Amino acid sequence: MSYEGVGGGFRDEPELLQFATERYVEAEASAVDLETDGLTDLQLCAQYCRECTVSVQRMFHVRSLGRVCADALRVGAEPFPLDLLEDLAQDDDSEVRQSVAEQLGVLTDAIKISRRKQEDDLALGLLNVAFLLVEDDSDGVVAAAEDATATVATLCTTGEEWAFLISRVEQLCRCEEEEIRISGSKIAGELAEVLGAETTASTLAPLLTELSKDDALQVREATVRATVRAGETMRGTGAVIQLFDIFSSLANDPVWSVRKACADCLVGLSKSVGQDAFAAFAQEIFETLANDVSLQVRTGMLENLGPLIAELGRERTSESLVDHFVSMAESTGGSASGLQLSCAFAMPGVALTLGRERWAEIRGAYDMLAHSVHWKVRRSLACSLHEVARILGSELAEADLVPVFQEMLGDADEVSIGVVNNLAAFMREIPPTVRLDHLHVLARIATPKSDVTIGNWRLRAAMTEQLGDLSKILPASANEEMTIPLALRLLKDPASAVREACIAVIGSVLQNSSDGSSSAWRSGQIGRAMSTIKLMATNQHWADRQAYVRICGAFAGSFNDNVLIEELLPLMLMTVDDNVPNVRSELAKSLANLRTKDIFAELPDVSAAAEALRNDPDQDVSRHCVIADRSKHLEFSTGLRATPVK
Asked: pTM value?
């Protein structure tokens, strides 16, 4: 068996195996020919990590170390290469050190799996590597090590290991260097979950209190986020009040960026205590920060008001908070765009939280946002219009949202496409009579501005994708009058993306418009639509014949099988002798789709057509048949061994 290679050439199996297993070395005079015979994968990887002088090749093996080590420890009894990690953690190349830091999580999992096979427990050694990398002078290395330290800490099981871990964190938090104290604060927050509520309260909470009074503002900013993480672990304990005191003091910090961090993290504190206690605390902190002297702090707090209201719930959301939310829609000046956009983005969540009963409190804000001068604000509302309609119910949606719906459809394309993408979902939420009153918009959207230019084909494609779902909620008469003629028109759209979208949905449109009787497919608007589609099979333009074949293939699963066999399949099979290879290639694909169902696979004419295409003189046509046959026995391959899908 041969396989197609790069550049169109073919390789047999032995050649492919050699190609996949070759160890490439860059063509440099200084390249070292390392000895590989008799070495395990882990030993080979370690040798290249230490001795290879080709930087790219060495980097490849360094990045493979975690995976190779995990595989080796899973299947064998090789010792964990801690000495190699210690050497690489002090390598001159920062990319090597960062790669080691990024793989600490994988290496930790490998140790957990093979712990019973190791002579020595490796928790202390790997923790030393992690803390060494935390104090690195490269930002990328430090960030990766900070993220991995908590994972490595899960290896700790003995009192000695826990004591070492805590002492190292304390050293970081009390270091003279500001950058290291920042890292210590971040790690303290991440470690809370690993250490548990009791140790967090007795050890980390006092550390966070110290850090909240640090002279460096960046340390205090990091402490805000660490406090929230620690609070999640201490939930339900009496000691959580310590963290609230820390957060409250930071919310009144003299530096605006620290207060801004508190505004961004306030909602996270809800995981620390019950809703009643959080509501009282959050209300106090919110009023402080929402009325701050700093514009950045006020803006940051208001931008997080939507999630805060959603967290508090309807009963605990005060009128004052709702008034602040409405004020975001009324905002003017330089920050108006950002505040209005945040308000629009949070509107569905706030509406869901407050419910229909309190919709009147934010209806004015919704109307102001719908008429904002910023198109991004209007687009955000357009994309969520159907969700708000579902929340409000049909009566309120008709009264308050249908006018907005009409205006947005006539808005800029960037706005109207948000409505069109969810057109069926919105129509489903309004009364049936109102739906019919607005069907005329479909024809307007589907009509290009001129026959010469394609116009906004994305808008038409989005609308076309909605026709299938729309046909489910519209009466048969409306489908015959509007939906079916519209689908037939879109089959001839100048943009191929629109035609493709229509091919995918026209079967559903016809099926949903039918009453289920066989006569419906031969009479009325559905019968005329079927005749129009069948005429495409004999059209002199090959693209129409190809589209017909594609339509038949797309009908499988969304169309009446008997009607497809009786009305459409004979003309489809006639294209097996079409003089255009593209049509025959499409036939091969469509037949493969149809033959996944037994009712089609058992038809002699279908089998004969498939066999004829398999022996087609055009290579592209026959190859599509071979690909379709192979897909029945799909295999995933790593390049060396294929694994059949079970």
From this structure: 0.81
